[in-house]
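> example.struct
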């Protein structure tokens, strides 16, 4: 109130000098920092919600691959490429996987490793096998974070229990070259190291060991030797399957190995093992893959390795060995339908 004997003009002047910009109210304006904090909190909640949604879904990509001399019977031959499940599930009985593949068709399935989680529980992998189905050939490899595929703990088999469990469900462990026949033509699916072994020397060494593991490896070598001869006679399409991507340097070493000529016949390398970098920076690369922070090189997509075509899957989950918290960031889980064609265009060659 205006004090006795004090005019309105004097009162307003005194109020303004006491720090009130509005003489009729003592409220201060909200600070800009408070609004910035609220906006930051809102953005964090929005990002967390999107990340939870994004990690629960699955994207099916499509990639066409040009093969100059592809036989007519193999035109449109399609492989469903899966990688880096990391023990993850996608709803009850992998319902999201089933939904994503509802209208898709393929001739074979290839899983390129890192399928089990950090606890080594194979149940999510078995669930994935059931969701995708084994009506078509289903092949898988062990990745760097998976338990050893052949650990020698079984008296009845050199293979590990988790591998035997997958095979009992119709999947095939790719420990030796596998042939798919379609329309009288052959598609060979091979893990690259099988093509570069000194088979004769290895067979002699294992023959002298006399153990269950040695007997198993003798069988692998014998079947690989026979497969090489068959591949030389007839191979309409040759796919190499690797648990890790090749760089130019590592591919050159492979080509320079004992039987590098078999590698040169490859029409495509299907690789995994990166989980797409797990966390991806907007407009940038991955944060962690294969034991490396901010790795260089191709973490996902279609490209070349020393002149050999290669497709790297971004995968479905996370590498069990990753030091990052177990979710993908700005990195939608994915599978890829890789289709082979003799029709060349911009989409069939790396850019």
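> example.seq
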């Amino acid at each position: 109130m205006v004090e006795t004997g004090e005019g309105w003009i004097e009162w307003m002047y005194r109020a303004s000098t006491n720090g009130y910009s509005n003489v009729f109210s003592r409220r201060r304006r909200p600070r800009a920092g408070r609004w910035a904090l609220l906006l930051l909190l809102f953005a964090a909640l929005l990002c967390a919600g999107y990340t939870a949604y994004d990690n629960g879904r699955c994207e099916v990509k499509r990639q066409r691959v040009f093969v100059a001399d592809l036989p007519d019977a193999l035109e449109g031959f399609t492989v469903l490429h899966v990688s880096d499940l990391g023990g993850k599930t996608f709803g009850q009985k992998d319902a999201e996987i089933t939904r994503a593949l509802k209208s898709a068709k393929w001739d074979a399935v290839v899983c390129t490793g890192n399928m089990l989680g950090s606890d080594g529980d194979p149940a999510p992998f078995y669930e994935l096998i059931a969701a995708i189905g084994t009506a078509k050939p289903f092949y898988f490899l062990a990745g760097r974070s998976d338990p050893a595929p052949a650990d020698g703990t079984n008296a009845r088999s050199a293979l590990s229990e988790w591998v035997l469990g997958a095979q009992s469900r119709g999947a095939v462990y790719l420990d030796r070259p596998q042939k798919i026949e379609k329309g009288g033509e052959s598609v060979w699916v091979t893990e690259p190291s099988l093509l570069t072994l000194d088979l004769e020397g290895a067979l002699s060494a294992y023959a002298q060991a006399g153990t269950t593991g040695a007997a198993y490896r003798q069988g692998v070598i014998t079947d690989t030797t026979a497969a090489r001869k068959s591949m030389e006679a007839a191979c309409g399409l040759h796919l190499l399957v690797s648990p890790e991507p090749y760089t130019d340097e590592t591919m050159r070493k492979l080509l320079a190995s004992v039987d590098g000529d078999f590698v040169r016949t490859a029409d495509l390398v299907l690789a995994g093992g990166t989980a797409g970098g797990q966390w991806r920076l907007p407009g940038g690369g991955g944060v962690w893959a294969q034991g490396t922070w901010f790795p260089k090189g191709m973490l996902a997509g279609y490209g070349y390795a020393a002149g050999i075509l290669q497709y790297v899957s971004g995968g479905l989950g996370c590498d069990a060995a990753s030091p990052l918290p177990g979710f993908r960031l700005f990195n939608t889980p994915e599978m890829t339908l890789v289709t082979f064609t003799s029709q060349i265009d911009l989409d069939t060659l790396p850019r």
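> remarks
The chain has nine helices and 14 strands.
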